[in-house]
Amino acid sequence: MRIGIFSDIHGNFEALEAVLKYFKDNHIYKYICLGDIVGYGPNPNECVEAVKGLKCPVVLGNHDYVAIGKGDVSLFNVTARNAIEWTQKQLTRENLDFLRTLPFIYRTKQLIAVHSTPREPERWEYVLTMDAALQNMEYYTEPVCFIGHSHAPFFLELDPEGKPQLIRDNPMIIKDKYRYMVNVGSVGQPRDNNPKSAFALYDTTQKTVTLLRVPYDIAITQEKIIKAELPIQLAQRLQNGF
Ligand SMILES: [Fe+2]
Q: How many angstroms does the Cα of residue 187 sit away from the middle of ligand 1?
């Protein structure tokens, strides 16, 4: 079975459409969404409706959490705060209700999916260091943990002796008795100096995880951001992916 795993759409409908087109063109019909469907971007309702339409597991992101009136907006920087306040006004009652149904964690025998960390998902910590990754790997027993939140993809492998290694191979092979943490990157606001939408493909039969990128029409999203009078930096950063 192949599962498309994607995160951090952030109201960028053009980017989401490009990723969903990739799934369709490649006959991928199972998905997991790791949250932050909204915040920053100009199409929160369209993105929630598209994700809802997939009828797939979805977990809550920190921007979704603030959008539904939970979480602490003071933890956001000014740009994120302005954008989430704009987003709250845009979201329909149905779409807010959908976001309210979302759990923090989704898990199966093969994987655990969470927006931020498996340790304490509601604290919205970032996995930015090897230490943080290793500490979090103690909080799940599934072979692979998929995360988002930092908008920067990585593959981390832990061998049976507990020795970690960042893997550059793509696809990455999931070996027996090894454990993994994968950041799938961001669909709608990549921050690894690559403006293309990022997501992952988990082939549970072949036992591989592939990090993928697709281009989308950035100019259209930028135009919408400007028209909506969202902070201009949100349009600029899409250009270079930072
Ligand atoms: Fe995010």
A: 9
